[in-house]
């Protein structure tokens, strides 16, 4: 008899501290191991690392890592921060921006996310309250098509 795994999600609230992205990546590895999804760890960790680094570098407030399961071993990794501005070229409605020059020291992270994720996008959270406003950048990886 086939069993159905219930969906799950986790949110890790992080202070604006240079150690926070590393702690969040470690938590992500533990979450994937606990849910028997180690095959998603390399891609999910890369997606999370780039999104977390973007929030840490370009905002001054707290941020949060959100991890959510989906059907067929699919996973959504998202990072919320307090800045409502979506980086150019990251929204799924934006035309892709060209990659940075090969000798550039910055600017590759979101291009990596777009290249490695099966889907990606951004949500601007305009209402204060539970969401505290800001934005949520997300990326998906894993098997099967998502209907989010």
UniProtKB/TrEMBL annotation:
GO terms for molecular function: ATP binding. Residues 85-104 are annotated as: Disordered. Keywords: ATP-binding, Kinase, Nucleotide-binding, Serine/threonine-protein kinase, Transferase. The keyword Kinase applies. It holds the Pfam family HATPase_c_2. It comes from the Bacteria. Residues 23-120 form the Histidine kinase/HSP90-like ATPase domain. This is ATP-binding protein.
């Amino acid at each position: 008899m086939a069993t159905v795994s219930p969906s799950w999600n986790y949110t890790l609230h992080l202070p604006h501290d240079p150690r926070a992205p590393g702690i969040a990546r470690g938590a992500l590895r533990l979450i994937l191991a606990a849910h028997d999804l180690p095959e998603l760890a390399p891609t999910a960790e890369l997606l999370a690392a780039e999104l977390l680094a973007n929030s840490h570098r370009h905002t001054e407030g707290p941020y949060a890592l959100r991890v959510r399961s989906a059907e067929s071993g699919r996973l959504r990794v998202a990072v919320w921060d307090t800045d409502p501005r979506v980086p150019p070229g990251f929204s799924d409605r934006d035309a892709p921006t060209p990659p940075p020059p090969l000798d550039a020291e910055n600017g590759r992270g979101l291009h990596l996310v777009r290249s490695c994720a099966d889907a990606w996008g951004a949500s601007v959270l305009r209402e204060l309250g539970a969401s505290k406003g800001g934005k949520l950048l997300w990326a998906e990886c894993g098997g099967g098509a998502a209907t989010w």
